[in-house]
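Hi X.,

You mentioned you wanted examples for the new student's onboarding notes, showing what a folding record looks like when two proteins sit in one file. Here is a clean example. The first protein comes first, with its sequence line followed by its structure tokens.
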Amino acid sequence: MTRKIGIVGGTGPEGSGLAYRWARAGEHIVIGSRDAQRAAETAARLRERIGAAAQIEGADNAAAVAQCEIVVLTVPFSGQAALLKQLKSVWKPGTVVIDTTVPLAATVGGAATRMLGVWQGSAAEQTKELLPAGVSVAAAFQNLSAELLASDDPMECDVLVCSDDEKARLIAFELAGKIPGARGLNGGKLENARIVESLTALLIGLNMRYKVHGAGIRFTGLPLK
């Protein structure tokens, strides 16, 4: 049976961009949203763009989580904790959660180039704390441009994956490899997500200063595989 990847917050720019890339690569995607109708409409637009064979559907967030083996969080940080508490009883043991959340000050009305302080250290560590036992977490995809994800151009960007769980790390690597031009790199333990998340604020500043929309990161001197 084909695995399903749920994208919670999948109607937003980052979530729909990842859904587009992975559905094009042949993955079965379930877009999750607070509004199931909105999720269905986003899925329909992506199917029309990719082709009728694309496996992509919409559901409310709880239904998306309940039916998927992999769940990607693409919600704004301001709503992350409340959503995870709402979904606490829905998670299945063995689910892999990939958190793309960045605690930008912009989510509470501040500057997009500033980070919020997170008691746990990072958004990903907060996610781990709020998930039930048996659900593993990797932090990844925080530094990818939503605008580029929505296009057909190669990303030309490294994806740092931080996790304390090897299964979650390998799945994040695999999904990174399904985005043309992207490369997954081992970013170490989950606690390192606080460093990776802060790179997003830096990239936003670079985009603003250089008047571009797709600044990314590349690490040199590493093996190609």
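Then the second protein repeats the pattern, sequence line and then tokens:
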Amino acid sequence: MRRNYVIIVAGGTGSRMGSGTPKQFLLLDGLPVMMHAIQAFYQSASTPKLIVVIHPSLHDSWRSLCEKHQFVLPHTVVNGGKSRFESVKNGLETIKSMDTELADCVIAVHDAARPLISATLIDKTYEQAALNGAAALATPSTDSVRVKSSDGLENKAFPRWNVYLIQTPQTFNGAILCAAYDQVDEDDGSFTDDASVVEKKGYPITLVDGDTRNLKITFPEDLRIAEVFIVGARS
């Protein structure tokens, strides 16, 4: 029987938000941003076991927030690392300690700062990963695209219909994801997300149609846009 897991990565410090509070802890519709993401996975038909990766210095803050908001959804808190790569790897080590048959598992990785992910999209990525081994949400680019040369002196138009903007969750067969994360992080910028780590190991990525509302909270205006989406969904 297939077993599902999700690693929710919450390592941001809030530097680009201009706030002393990490962005995943900022309030959105009365709850910290990352609680919305956790709820979405908990309520999905895939019902994965929840692994939440947080920097060790923020564990006490997270416990206080859970008490304050009476947030009791079952989840395992894991120490975040110095990089996203290391944080995901820490999450995988926790899953390995829970489950030895990784080939029978499907593991999603999701950014805690994407609070508006829907249960429907979550389930689609699990289904595609179970079928094809590796799946990632993506939306087609609606903007014109230009590509710079390596020296930055030239740039050329590139057909935007060939460009997709990647979101999370990105979801994988457990054995594939763990094998990919056995690679060394060269810290050269080539590993921009989990799909790029898996792809470098030689596995193809299936793209699943995402949603522009599945935005990542990075700047203050993103939080305001997310509030608008939530209010609109209730109307």
